[in-house]
Each structure stands twice: as structure tokens, then as C-alpha cells.
Amino acid sequence: MTLVALSFPDDGALVGSVSRELHARMGLLEWRHFPDGESLIRIDDGIEGADVIIFASLADPDRKALPVRFVAQTAKELGARSVGLVAPYLAYMRQDARFRPGEAIAASVFARFLDQCLDWLVTVDPHLHRVARLDELYRIPVSCVASAPELANWIRREVSNPILIGPDEESVQWVAEIAREAQIPYELLHKRRCGDREVEVSAPDPERLRGFTPVLVDDIVSTGRTLAAAAEHLRRLELPSPVCVVIHPLFSGNAHELLKRAGVERIVSTNSILHSSNAIGLAKPIARAVAGHLARIQTGAGP
Fold first, then answer.
1. What is the mean pLDDT of the chain?
2. Among 128, 29, 44, which residue's Cα sits nearest to residue 78?
3. Rg (the chain; Cα; Å)
4. Is the pLDDT of residue 302 over 80?
5. Of 89, 185, 206, 259, which sits with the fewest C-beta atoms within 10 Å of its C-beta?
6. From the centroid of its chain, how far is CA 9?
7. 3-state secondary structure of 18
């Protein structure tokens, strides 16, 4: 079985680690733009009969989604046996319903867009809301890698006497799993949104946090305002400066600096999206998920 990995420029660090785990060859992927903004894609032409793995974390989906489609379709035209996508961060998960008349249900539309050009998909902790499972959206085989074991290992190793803090009730699905893996306690804050960029949080029982090092955990940090409000609340309770652990570090605008100003002592993230805070690697669990799809293809059981 010949494995060829194709990676977009800002996914190079992770693809190198995963490729080594899988013994995959790094193939050529060139991406440049014409003056009018259109993308020109050129890929390795020696992939006939190969199983191709595209690496593209979709933190900037409108910029990268169409080039991903170009890569996948071109690989099939050049004779690839199968083409899969590793998208550690999977975009367009929030809009999974029509909240106002005329709105696009982007989660379903985007799933169809990727279904049409791929044989399988691997992602990390997708941000599911009203959809319980990713395979309710996607028709191709999908694998959702759980980052909890890697986050739990890092917290156990790096933080003294930790207690996990979820910034809102929605975060319980990640916080509870990490706490179980690490065998440490957790607490949830209650969030009240006052506007698009303003939030208030409160702890249900501040005394339960005494004597611990608080570890704020969230799956996605975009503006950072929810975690900043949580950090400021903890500071008012005269607790130790919190550590912040993030699965998907989008960090739009000045989010990273905002958390620092709010009193967060240390900010770390997985490498699902390239960022200076990356400290928790996901190569091994991603490689295991990819290997599962490739094994099914090898045995003729399909993707």
C-alpha cells in the first residue's frame, strides 16, 4: 500500500508527525493565486494507485475549502485509489439549523460539499450542538478523534493540584471527559451573554475551588471573551492565576492578549490549528484514526 500525504502550508508541522507515524510519503502540493484571486493547485503526479491523505485544518474555511476540493478531485483524476481528508478543526458546525427564515443550514451544505470529493474524513472533537453525531451530517465514513487523553496527560504532568473549570454549561461534554481521564475534579461556571462580545460568568460554589490550581478548558477559543470573563471572575475570588487549555486555538483578533490581560498565567493548545500556544500533540491519535480507514480500504471493506 502506497500512502501519499498532501499538506497545505500552515498544516506542515502536524502532517510531518502523522506521516512519520503512518510511514507515508510527503507529496507535492503547490498552491498559489492569480492576480484576480483565483487559486492554482498543482499536486504530485506520481500518485496512481496510491491512497492520498490531504491535511487541511479548516480554521479559515472560506479560503481553504475550494482548494481542498481542487486537490481531492485532481488526485482522483490522476488515479489515486482513495482520497481522505484530515481536518483537525472542522468548520461550519455551528449553523446546524435554520434559526431565522432564509438562513442557510451551513453544516449540512458543507458536509455535502466534502462528501462529493472525499472517501473518508478524520477530525478532532467537532463542535456538535443539535446534531448528536457527525455521521448524521456526512455520508462518507468519519472518525472523530478525542483529544481528552492528550489534554489529561498534559494537565497531570504540568499542573500542580488542578481542578478543571468549564466556562459554561455547554463545555461539560469536554471538561467531564478530561476530568475522568485525569482523575481530577471539575466545576462549571454559569454564563450569561449580554451581547455579541460581552459575557458575565459566575461560579455555582466558589468554596469548592479553594486550594486548587484552576485550569480553564474550552474546545474553541475565538474572541476569547468567555474565557477572559471566567479568568477575571476567578481573580476576584482571589484564586491562583488560572492555566488555560484549549482544543482548537482560533484566537481571532487580540484574543490571546485578552486572556493574558485577564490574568491567565499560561495558555496552551493542541496543534489542531497552528498557533504559538501549541503544546499538546495530536499526531498519534490522528494517525490511528487514519490507519483505521486505510485498513478497511486495504481489505476491500470500503473507506
1. 91
2. 44
3. 20
4. no
5. 185
6. 17
7. helix
How far is the C-alpha of 21 from the C-alpha of 189, rounded, in Å? 39
All three cell numbers of 45: 503526479
Cβ contact 246:268 at 8 Å: yes
3-state secondary structure of 7: strand
Residue with cell 484514526: 289
Buried-exposed string 164-177: b where 16+ CB fall within 10 A, e elsewhere? bbbbbebbeebbeb
Supply φ then ψ for residue 136, to 5 degrees.
Answer: -75, -20
Q: What is the pTM of this model?
A: 0.92
Number of H helices, E strands in the chain: 8, 16
pLDDT value of residue 206: 74
Q: End-to-end alpha-carbon separation of the chain, Å? A: 14
